[in-house]
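Hi, here's the filled form for the chain we discussed.

Project: internal
Contact: R.S.
Residues: 286
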Amino acid sequence: MSLSSIRSVFPNSHAVAGLCALAVVCGGAVPALAQTIGETLQTTNVVAGSVGGATFVRLKSRDTIYRDEVIRTRSQSVGEFKFEDSTLFVVGPDAEVVLSDAVYGGPGSHKLLSGAMRFVTSKVSPVSDVVVTTPVASIGIRGTIVDLFVEPGSGQTSALLARGGPADVCAGGHCVAITTVCDAVQVGGGGGGGPTAPVNVSQFQGSRPASELFPFAAASYRTRSVFRQGAARCGLSSGRVWNPDILIRDPNRIEPEEHNDDDYSPPSPSVSSPGPSANTSGSNNL
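And the returned structure, exactly as it came back:
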Protein backbone atom coordinates (compact mmCIF):
# COMPACT_ATOMS: atom_id res chain seq x y z
CA MET A 1 0.00 0.00 0.00
CA SER A 2 2.22 2.81 -1.21
CA LEU A 3 1.59 6.45 -0.35
CA SER A 4 1.08 7.21 -4.02
CA SER A 5 -1.83 4.75 -4.15
CA ILE A 6 -3.73 6.22 -1.21
CA ARG A 7 -7.31 7.18 -2.05
CA SER A 8 -10.12 7.43 0.47
CA VAL A 9 -13.09 5.23 -0.46
CA PHE A 10 -14.79 4.43 2.86
CA PRO A 11 -15.75 6.51 5.89
CA ASN A 12 -13.44 5.72 8.77
CA SER A 13 -15.31 3.37 11.13
CA HIS A 14 -14.84 0.00 12.80
CA ALA A 15 -11.09 0.11 12.23
CA VAL A 16 -8.76 -1.37 14.82
CA ALA A 17 -7.70 1.36 17.22
CA GLY A 18 -4.41 1.78 19.01
CA LEU A 19 -1.62 1.79 16.44
CA CYS A 20 -2.16 5.41 15.47
CA ALA A 21 -1.15 6.54 18.93
CA LEU A 22 2.26 4.93 18.36
CA ALA A 23 2.68 5.85 14.73
CA VAL A 24 4.66 8.59 13.12
CA VAL A 25 2.17 8.95 10.28
CA CYS A 26 -1.64 8.67 10.54
CA GLY A 27 -4.61 9.74 8.45
CA GLY A 28 -4.36 8.16 5.00
CA ALA A 29 -0.92 6.62 5.43
CA VAL A 30 0.19 3.33 6.93
CA PRO A 31 1.23 3.67 10.60
CA ALA A 32 4.99 3.55 10.99
CA LEU A 33 4.94 0.54 13.32
CA ALA A 34 2.62 -1.60 11.18
CA GLN A 35 3.86 -5.18 10.70
CA THR A 36 3.89 -6.56 7.16
CA ILE A 37 2.12 -9.94 6.94
CA GLY A 38 1.52 -10.44 3.21
CA GLU A 39 0.50 -8.91 -0.08
CA THR A 40 -2.45 -8.24 -2.34
CA LEU A 41 -2.60 -10.54 -5.37
CA GLN A 42 -5.52 -8.97 -7.22
CA THR A 43 -8.53 -6.75 -6.62
CA THR A 44 -11.68 -6.27 -8.64
CA ASN A 45 -13.63 -3.05 -8.11
CA VAL A 46 -13.65 -1.55 -4.60
CA VAL A 47 -11.41 -3.36 -2.12
CA ALA A 48 -9.91 -1.17 0.60
CA GLY A 49 -7.89 -1.45 3.79
CA SER A 50 -7.37 0.55 6.97
CA VAL A 51 -4.50 0.17 9.43
CA GLY A 52 -4.50 1.61 12.94
CA GLY A 53 -7.62 3.71 12.46
CA ALA A 54 -6.30 5.39 9.31
CA THR A 55 -8.54 6.28 6.38
CA PHE A 56 -9.61 3.34 4.22
CA VAL A 57 -7.55 3.31 1.03
CA ARG A 58 -7.91 1.39 -2.22
CA LEU A 59 -5.84 -1.81 -2.53
CA LYS A 60 -4.34 -3.06 -5.76
CA SER A 61 -2.05 -5.84 -6.95
CA ARG A 62 1.24 -6.12 -5.02
CA ASP A 63 0.12 -3.77 -2.23
CA THR A 64 1.31 -4.84 1.21
CA ILE A 65 -1.17 -6.02 3.84
CA TYR A 66 -0.52 -5.47 7.53
CA ARG A 67 -1.23 -6.99 10.90
CA ASP A 68 -4.43 -5.52 12.38
CA GLU A 69 -5.55 -4.29 8.96
CA VAL A 70 -9.28 -4.05 8.32
CA ILE A 71 -10.24 -5.04 4.77
CA ARG A 72 -13.62 -4.17 3.27
CA THR A 73 -15.21 -4.80 -0.10
CA ARG A 74 -18.20 -3.27 -1.82
CA SER A 75 -20.78 -5.04 -3.97
CA GLN A 76 -19.41 -6.80 -7.07
CA SER A 77 -15.93 -6.59 -5.53
CA VAL A 78 -13.39 -9.32 -4.75
CA GLY A 79 -9.93 -9.23 -3.17
CA GLU A 80 -7.27 -11.97 -3.37
CA PHE A 81 -4.36 -12.06 -0.90
CA LYS A 82 -1.32 -14.10 0.18
CA PHE A 83 0.28 -14.24 3.62
CA GLU A 84 4.04 -14.52 4.04
CA ASP A 85 3.69 -18.21 4.98
CA SER A 86 2.00 -18.83 1.57
CA THR A 87 -1.50 -19.16 3.02
CA LEU A 88 -3.99 -17.67 0.57
CA PHE A 89 -7.35 -16.05 1.16
CA VAL A 90 -10.01 -14.31 -0.89
CA VAL A 91 -12.92 -12.14 0.25
CA GLY A 92 -16.14 -11.66 -1.67
CA PRO A 93 -18.52 -8.72 -2.10
CA ASP A 94 -19.80 -6.71 0.88
CA ALA A 95 -17.33 -8.35 3.25
CA GLU A 96 -15.33 -7.12 6.22
CA VAL A 97 -12.35 -8.96 7.72
CA VAL A 98 -9.76 -8.02 10.34
CA LEU A 99 -6.27 -9.51 9.95
CA SER A 100 -5.95 -9.33 13.68
CA ASP A 101 -3.06 -11.50 14.83
CA ALA A 102 -0.99 -13.14 12.12
CA VAL A 103 1.92 -14.47 14.15
CA TYR A 104 4.19 -16.81 12.24
CA GLY A 105 5.44 -19.87 14.10
CA GLY A 106 1.91 -20.07 15.53
CA PRO A 107 -1.60 -19.97 14.08
CA GLY A 108 -2.77 -16.77 12.47
CA SER A 109 -5.96 -15.41 14.01
CA HIS A 110 -8.36 -13.35 11.95
CA LYS A 111 -11.90 -12.02 12.28
CA LEU A 112 -14.53 -12.36 9.57
CA LEU A 113 -17.28 -9.92 10.48
CA SER A 114 -19.49 -10.25 7.41
CA GLY A 115 -19.56 -11.71 3.92
CA ALA A 116 -17.83 -14.61 2.15
CA MET A 117 -14.22 -15.73 2.48
CA ARG A 118 -12.05 -18.67 1.37
CA PHE A 119 -8.84 -19.76 3.10
CA VAL A 120 -6.25 -22.00 1.41
CA THR A 121 -3.62 -23.41 3.75
CA SER A 122 -0.82 -25.79 2.82
CA LYS A 123 0.68 -27.16 6.02
CA VAL A 124 -0.53 -30.22 7.91
CA SER A 125 0.07 -29.92 11.64
CA PRO A 126 -1.47 -31.05 14.94
CA VAL A 127 -2.78 -27.54 15.52
CA SER A 128 -4.62 -25.19 13.21
CA ASP A 129 -2.58 -23.08 10.79
CA VAL A 130 -5.29 -20.42 10.80
CA VAL A 131 -8.04 -19.58 13.27
CA VAL A 132 -10.93 -17.46 12.01
CA THR A 133 -13.36 -16.00 14.51
CA THR A 134 -16.80 -14.69 13.61
CA PRO A 135 -19.42 -13.02 15.81
CA VAL A 136 -20.71 -16.48 16.84
CA ALA A 137 -18.03 -19.09 16.09
CA SER A 138 -14.36 -20.00 15.85
CA ILE A 139 -13.02 -22.05 12.94
CA GLY A 140 -9.66 -23.83 12.95
CA ILE A 141 -8.21 -24.46 9.49
CA ARG A 142 -5.20 -26.67 8.75
CA GLY A 143 -3.88 -28.10 5.48
CA THR A 144 -7.12 -27.49 3.71
CA ILE A 145 -9.45 -25.20 1.77
CA VAL A 146 -12.39 -23.83 3.74
CA ASP A 147 -15.18 -21.47 2.68
CA LEU A 148 -16.87 -19.26 5.27
CA PHE A 149 -19.87 -16.97 5.19
CA VAL A 150 -21.06 -14.60 7.91
CA GLU A 151 -24.58 -13.22 7.62
CA PRO A 152 -24.56 -9.44 8.10
CA GLY A 153 -26.39 -8.40 11.23
CA SER A 154 -27.04 -11.79 12.84
CA GLY A 155 -23.51 -13.13 12.50
CA GLN A 156 -24.89 -16.53 11.50
CA THR A 157 -21.87 -18.47 10.26
CA SER A 158 -21.66 -21.20 7.62
CA ALA A 159 -18.52 -23.24 6.87
CA LEU A 160 -17.77 -25.60 3.96
CA LEU A 161 -14.81 -27.96 3.56
CA ALA A 162 -13.77 -27.62 -0.09
CA ARG A 163 -10.56 -29.69 0.02
CA GLY A 164 -8.33 -31.56 2.45
CA GLY A 165 -9.29 -31.31 6.07
CA PRO A 166 -10.23 -31.34 8.78
CA ALA A 167 -11.71 -28.02 9.81
CA ASP A 168 -12.89 -27.50 13.38
CA VAL A 169 -15.93 -25.31 14.03
CA CYS A 170 -16.54 -24.31 17.65
CA ALA A 171 -19.33 -22.35 19.34
CA GLY A 172 -21.25 -22.43 22.60
CA GLY A 173 -18.70 -24.70 24.21
CA HIS A 174 -19.07 -27.36 21.51
CA CYS A 175 -16.83 -28.22 18.54
CA VAL A 176 -17.56 -30.13 15.34
CA ALA A 177 -14.87 -31.43 12.97
CA ILE A 178 -15.66 -31.29 9.26
CA THR A 179 -13.71 -34.20 7.76
CA THR A 180 -15.53 -34.92 4.50
CA VAL A 181 -15.08 -32.70 1.46
CA CYS A 182 -18.28 -30.85 0.48
CA ASP A 183 -19.75 -31.13 3.98
CA ALA A 184 -20.94 -27.93 5.64
CA VAL A 185 -22.02 -26.79 9.10
CA GLN A 186 -23.83 -23.77 10.45
CA VAL A 187 -23.79 -21.80 13.69
CA GLY A 188 -26.90 -19.73 14.32
CA GLY A 189 -26.76 -16.01 14.91
CA GLY A 190 -29.43 -15.82 17.57
CA GLY A 191 -27.27 -16.76 20.53
CA GLY A 192 -28.09 -20.45 20.09
CA GLY A 193 -25.93 -23.48 20.82
CA GLY A 194 -23.07 -25.10 18.99
CA PRO A 195 -22.54 -25.99 15.34
CA THR A 196 -24.93 -28.23 13.45
CA ALA A 197 -23.83 -31.72 12.41
CA PRO A 198 -21.91 -31.75 9.11
CA VAL A 199 -24.04 -32.55 6.05
CA ASN A 200 -23.31 -32.58 2.34
CA VAL A 201 -23.75 -29.12 0.88
CA SER A 202 -26.49 -30.45 -1.42
CA GLN A 203 -28.61 -31.00 1.72
CA PHE A 204 -27.42 -27.93 3.60
CA GLN A 205 -30.16 -25.66 4.94
CA GLY A 206 -28.58 -22.26 5.42
CA SER A 207 -29.68 -18.66 5.64
CA ARG A 208 -29.60 -18.42 1.82
CA PRO A 209 -28.88 -20.74 -1.15
CA ALA A 210 -25.60 -22.65 -0.85
CA SER A 211 -24.23 -21.03 -4.01
CA GLU A 212 -24.58 -17.64 -2.29
CA LEU A 213 -23.15 -18.81 1.01
CA PHE A 214 -20.16 -20.41 -0.71
CA PRO A 215 -19.64 -18.40 -3.93
CA PHE A 216 -16.03 -19.54 -4.37
CA ALA A 217 -17.04 -23.21 -4.38
CA ALA A 218 -19.68 -22.20 -6.93
CA ALA A 219 -17.01 -20.48 -9.08
CA SER A 220 -19.10 -17.32 -9.07
CA TYR A 221 -16.19 -14.91 -9.56
CA ARG A 222 -13.25 -14.54 -11.89
CA THR A 223 -10.34 -15.41 -9.62
CA ARG A 224 -7.24 -17.58 -9.65
CA SER A 225 -8.14 -21.22 -10.13
CA VAL A 226 -7.24 -22.15 -6.55
CA PHE A 227 -10.04 -19.89 -5.36
CA ARG A 228 -12.58 -21.69 -7.57
CA GLN A 229 -11.84 -25.30 -6.58
CA GLY A 230 -14.80 -27.35 -5.44
CA ALA A 231 -17.40 -26.32 -8.02
CA ALA A 232 -17.38 -29.65 -9.88
CA ARG A 233 -16.78 -31.75 -6.78
CA CYS A 234 -19.50 -30.19 -4.63
CA GLY A 235 -21.99 -29.68 -7.45
CA LEU A 236 -22.51 -25.99 -6.80
CA SER A 237 -23.33 -23.65 -9.66
CA SER A 238 -23.96 -19.96 -9.35
CA GLY A 239 -25.89 -19.63 -12.58
CA ARG A 240 -24.23 -16.26 -13.06
CA VAL A 241 -21.58 -14.88 -15.37
CA TRP A 242 -18.80 -12.65 -14.08
CA ASN A 243 -18.98 -9.92 -16.71
CA PRO A 244 -16.60 -6.97 -16.33
CA ASP A 245 -18.98 -4.84 -18.39
CA ILE A 246 -21.64 -4.96 -15.68
CA LEU A 247 -19.44 -4.47 -12.65
CA ILE A 248 -20.08 -1.69 -10.18
CA ARG A 249 -20.38 1.75 -11.73
CA ASP A 250 -18.07 3.84 -9.61
CA PRO A 251 -16.11 6.88 -10.76
CA ASN A 252 -13.20 5.78 -8.58
CA ARG A 253 -13.35 2.11 -9.51
CA ILE A 254 -10.32 -0.01 -10.18
CA GLU A 255 -10.63 -2.09 -13.31
CA PRO A 256 -10.07 -5.83 -12.90
CA GLU A 257 -6.36 -6.50 -13.29
CA GLU A 258 -5.20 -9.02 -15.84
CA HIS A 259 -3.24 -11.94 -14.47
CA ASN A 260 -1.83 -15.23 -15.61
CA ASP A 261 -2.43 -18.22 -13.36
CA ASP A 262 0.80 -19.72 -14.70
CA ASP A 263 2.91 -17.03 -13.03
CA TYR A 264 1.77 -17.97 -9.54
CA SER A 265 1.94 -21.38 -7.87
CA PRO A 266 -0.50 -21.70 -4.95
CA PRO A 267 0.33 -24.00 -2.04
CA SER A 268 -0.73 -27.64 -2.43
CA PRO A 269 -2.12 -29.29 0.72
CA SER A 270 -0.30 -32.54 1.33
CA VAL A 271 -3.39 -34.34 2.60
CA SER A 272 -5.46 -36.24 0.09
CA SER A 273 -9.08 -35.33 -0.31
CA PRO A 274 -11.53 -37.72 1.35
CA GLY A 275 -14.19 -36.69 -1.12
CA PRO A 276 -14.99 -37.74 -4.70
CA SER A 277 -12.16 -37.70 -7.21
CA ALA A 278 -13.51 -35.01 -9.52
CA ASN A 279 -11.32 -31.93 -9.66
CA THR A 280 -12.33 -29.20 -9.59
CA SER A 281 -17.18 -6.30 10.65
CA GLY A 282 -19.20 -4.90 12.14
CA SER A 283 -20.92 -2.54 9.72
CA ASN A 284 -21.96 -2.59 6.11
CA ASN A 285 -22.28 1.17 6.00
CA LEU A 286 -19.66 1.72 3.35
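Let me know if anything looks off before we file it.
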